[in-house]
Amino acid sequence: MGSTEDLDYPQIILQYSNGFLISKVMFTACELGVFDLLLESGKPLSSDAIAAGLGASTMGMRRLLDACVGLKLLAVEMTQEGVLYRNTEISNVYLTKSSPKSQYHIMMYYSNTVYLCWQYLADAVREGRNQYERAFGVTSKDPFGAMYRSDEEMLKFMAGQNSVWSICGRDVLSAFDLSPFTKIYDLGGGGGALARECVSLYPNSTVTIYDLPKVVQVAKEQLVSPEEHQITFHEGDFFNDSIPEAELYILSKILHDWDDDKCKQLLEKVYKACKPGCVFFLFSPPGGGVLLAESLLNEDKSGPVETQLYSMNMLVQTEGIERTAAEYSKLLEAAGFGVIQVKRTGKLYDAVLGRK
Of 12, 256, 296, 349, which sits with the fewest C-beta atoms within 10 Å of its C-beta? Predict the structure, then answer.
């Protein structure tokens, strides 16, 4: 590694400044349907043809396409007719709506919702609270009331979370052998993508999605097929209503939404509800468990940078914060969980398993 004199600090600062521009190019190409059109065409197209197909200006579309080429989201072919554009493999897999691993919905949620909150990041830092009131004119006292301020916004959020778990869920669920658990509750399971991954990975399990009534209604009607018999639903507010007994509780990106006191309150309820006497590893103590799926900070808070940025997002959107493995372990221990294991997946989200 070179010395600090080898670093081009002005260039680094400019690259950081361009981060906003880069993401908006990708979001805009998704929103306009560039990648979908090219996939459906089955052949490379000219900028004029793409502009005409999407009802955009030829000048604006050409610049957008060239920027996507620079970001390696599109590739170009030089022909006698001129420059033709086609999707790269990355775009076909992750940026087209029809792909099973599509990230289109989370892109749109970030572009149309998260970015509006981030415009008030300085206010969030000064005040130490989320910015829904400034961004959308709704009360910030109930983060999820603000997040689900309309059926359309709730569906966008749920579809976005589904797209994330479609590519990250299996990493978390396979971090530990969960096959001995057959009765599982996914608290705040939303659109069901993680539950779907769970029953696929562990076919002897059943997963009950425990979420707010309006979330469950949308999930049943639009996101989870009735043929998926291993996935069931329970309507309720897990902070205020009872939690039924189960062998394992999954909390995926739940605790990072809340401060320590709320996390302790929820984990204590989960601990009391955990089914006793479930031996799930040889020579392991009996008891149920809880699986946390979270993005873990390094113990010295030096990174990863993605998790540090997520923590800033928790500031502008929720009441929570990203934590270290030790901080999550401390919360689990305070709730009564005695055996705690941590697995870093090397991907966006890690796994923490607490056993009763």
Answer: 12
Cα–Cα dist 234/216, whole Å: 8
Residue 36: predicted pLDDT: 98
CA distance 227 to 11: 54
Query: Is residue 193 a contact partner of residue 169, using CB atoms and an 8 Å limit?
Result: yes
Q: What is the DSSP string of 37-60?
A: HHHHH-S-B-HHHHHHHHT--HHH
Q: Catalytic positions, please?
A: 256
Of 82, 42, 46, the closest CA to residue 61 belongs to 46
Classify burial at 78, counting beta carbons within 10 Å of its beta carbon; exposed 0-12, middle 13-18, buried 19 or more: exposed
pLDDT in tens, 115-166: 999 999 999 999 999 999 999 999 888 999 999 999 999 999 999 999 999 9
Write out the two tokens for 306.
């993605």
Instruction: Dump pLDDT digits (tens) for 160-186.
Output: 999 999 999 999 999 999 999 999 999
Between the alpha carbon of residue 40 and those of residues 92, 239, 245, 342, the distances in Å are: 10, 46, 48, 43
pLDDT digits (tens, 9 = 90+) for 5-20: 566 778 888 888 889 9
Separation of first and last alpha carbons in the chain:
45
Distance separating alpha carbons of residues 133 and 145, to the nearest angstrom: 12
In whole angstroms, give the CA distance from residue 147 to residue 8. 40
Instruction: Render pLDDT for 265-282 as a digit per residue (tens, 0 to 9).
Output: 999 999 999 988 544 444
